[in-house]
Each structure stands twice: as structure tokens, then as C-alpha cells.
Known about the structure:
The chain is about 45% helix and about 20% strand. By secondary structure, it is α/β, with parallel strands linked by helices. The chain folds into two domains: about 15-95; about 140-300, 3-Layer(aba) Sandwich (Dihydrofolate Reductase, subunit A). The strands form three sheets. It has an eight-stranded mixed sheet with strand order 7-6-5-8-3-9-12-11, with helices on both faces. Strands 1-2 form a two-stranded antiparallel ribbon. Strands 4-10 form a two-stranded antiparallel ribbon. α1 runs antiparallel to α2. The longest helix is centred in the middle third of the chain and has 42 residues, at about 95-135. The chain is rod-shaped and about 125 Å long.
Amino acid sequence: MFSKKKTEQPTIDKEQLELIQNAQKRVAQKRRLYIHFVIFLIGTLFLISLNLIIGFGSNVKVFEKDWFVSVTLLWLCIFIYHLSQVYVAHKFMGKSWEQKQINKLVAKQEARIEKLKHKFEKEETHIAQSNVYNLKTTNHKNITIIVAASENNAIGKNNDLIWHLSHDLKRFKTLTNNHHIIMGRKTFESFPKPLPNRTHIVISRQEDYKVPKGVIVVSSLQKAIAVAKHDAQPFIIGGGEIYKQAMHIANKIELTRVHGHFEADTFFPEIDPSIWKETANTFHKKDEKHKYEFSFITYKRLL
């Protein structure tokens, strides 16, 4: 049996198809123009013949001219308009021209948006720098960050600790006892009740935030430090956003480095060795009370 050989159909890409369709439109426009021109000539000759042979329209005046002359002039104007549409408007102001104009407008709008975006980013940077400057110009010289963080800087998940280390809790209690402890609202809400022998300063933007008696509420880290100005060593105890702000102004970091990697939704900032110097490091093995190995590390600011 013989198989019929299939003839391959030539493929036409999108650009070629658009060129063909555009050419077909141009041909159709010119064809209509030529038909219009032929009808115009025949109609004009017919009117002239009627006027010359039988005097048709001689007694009818339009704009002080014979009727057929006025009609011919009007028709000529229509033909000229048709001619300009085919050879001027459609050729130089067709779809491609429209697309170019749209592209120009879009480009102008994008440039304007980029300019506004750059201005916004510049203003945002200026505000951020001003906030850091305000924090750096506080009079307090002994602000300490205290934190427990894993090797991937995880510090918490679902507003709770990821681990329970007895020695870490004892160290926290010993260091912060009789001092001001500064924290964010979520960190404060993770406590079952305020910790004894410490002055709690809670940073919250919520107006009329309800707290137990003795707890102080402020709207910014700068105000929290101002409240603790008489404390020889106030402590920043979290959470993540407060730690980020405090890294610019703290003089010391008391870090419990938990040796392991953990899933978390809150993280401690990276400690830059060009800014912070390690001054103490005590390693603890895991045991029946400690599921993970950990180290107590002290950093002091160089810059």
C-alpha cells in the first residue's frame, strides 16, 4: 500500500500575519477610493450633460451658483476628504501611529511613577536615618540587649520560645533583676504575668493599651529609653522589630546561642563583627535539663 505524502503548509508568524492584514486593508481602502473617483467623474459628466443639453438646474441657484456646479464642488470636497483619509490619516496616523502615541504616553507615565517612587524612597530613607539619629543621640550609655537565638538566628515562633533552657532562664533573671526591661507589646503578652523585681516598659502604638498597674506604656524605643534614664543598665528583651532598632544604640549584647537550626517566624539580626567584639563565651553541653547545647556569649560595641 502506498501512503499519501502530506504537503507541509507554510507557517506564518504573527508579524507576517499583521503585515499581510495591513496590506489587505490598504488595498481595500485604495479600491474604494478609485471607485469613488470613477463615480465622481461619471456623476460630474452626467450633471454637466443634463445642464448643457436640457438646461437642468440652470434656474436653481445655490450660494449664487448653478445647482450642478455647487453639487460638483461639494462632491469634490468629499472626494478630497476621502483622499486624505486614505493617503494621510490611515497611512501616517493609522494603527502603528496610534500605538506609538500610546507607547509615548505610557513611557511618560512610567517615568513619572519612577520619579515619584525615587522621591518616596529618598524621603523614607531620610525618615529612617532621622529615627536612628534620634536614638543614637540618647544620653544613656549602658543599654544592653539580652536574647536567646539559634545558629540561624531564630528566636521565637507563634509568639513563644522554641526551647526551654533552665540555665538560660536563670541567667536572664539574674541579669535583669532590679532593672528596667524594654519590650514590644507581643513580647509582653507572651508573659503569663509581669516578672517580679523588674520595671516593665512596653512599646505599643495602640492607644489606651490596657496593662497591669506598674507597667509603663510608651509609643517608641526612644521614649522607652528616656523613661529608663535613671537605670544604670536597662535591658532590651524583644521582640524582633525592637531588637532591630536597638542594634543601632545598644552598647552590649548578652546572647544565649542555642546550637542548632530551628523553624521560626521571628529572628534576631546578624551580629556584625566589625561593630561588635566578643568578650566572653561559656559553652554548655546538653543534659537531662537541657535538650540542646548552648553558649553564653557577651558582645561589646566597638563603634
